[in-house]
Amino acid sequence: MSEFDTNLEQKNLSKLQIEIIKLRSIIRYHRDQEGDDRCWLDDELLYESLPETANISPSLPSKEFFMDKCTRFHSKRQDPNQKRKANKPSQIPMDEDVRTLDEDVKNMSEEEQNKEIARLKQAIRLHRNIGDNQRSWQDDKRLYQALNENSIYDTTLPDQDKFLANCDQLFSIKGKPSKLNNSK
Q1: Which residues on neighbouring strands pair with residue 179, listed in sequence order?
Q2: N or C: which end of the chain has fewer CB within 10 A?
Q3: More confident position, 16 or 54
């Protein structure tokens, strides 16, 4: 059991409430990655939250396939209107306190909780079903809207050469085709 799971259980939440918070948290994690921390591997982690993919053991593809996915990710997954100057850090203001984002879960009926779980899983499935070759920053935006939060997120990536160099380094660290771990 992860530390995250233990913390949720200590709050005396029901299994449905915990499931909602976990789904929202994985979408937030996906949304909150910035710069060269944004990666197609984050999509894989997102999809692992679905019951139909929970027991699939993801593996690292060949380097050629890995780098091809990185190139496609870079070309499609940033809002062209949001490019910032190199080396300028992004500031992502949030109008909500992270600690209170899931307070609404405590006041939901069991039926409302089941509907919320189904709604969040559907948003993740829709994102997954678009397919790697077609998925764009607009699809990420639609996924993040499932959170019903007023957070601003940053889709900008480093220039392509720097991004792909970081991808190459990531592949070297992960090694030859093998099981993925959840760290980058």
Answers
A1: 59
A2: N
A3: 16
The encoded tokens of residue 154 equal 């940053």
26: nearest Cα among 150, 153, 171, 143 = 143
Q: Residue for token digits 């496609």?
A: 72
Residue 73's CB: how many other CB atoms inside 10 A? 22
pTM of the predicted protein model: 0.80
CA quadruple 91, 94, 95, 99: dihedral sign: negative
What is the per-residue pLDDT across 135-152, written as a single tens digit (0 to 9) for each?
A: 999 999 999 999 988 777
What the block records as the tokens of 147 is 């959170």
CA distance 170 to 42: 13
- Please give the Cα distance from 173 to 13 (Å, whole number): 38
| Length of the chain as a residue count | 184
Judge whether 17 and 105 are in contact, CB under 8 Å. Answer: yes
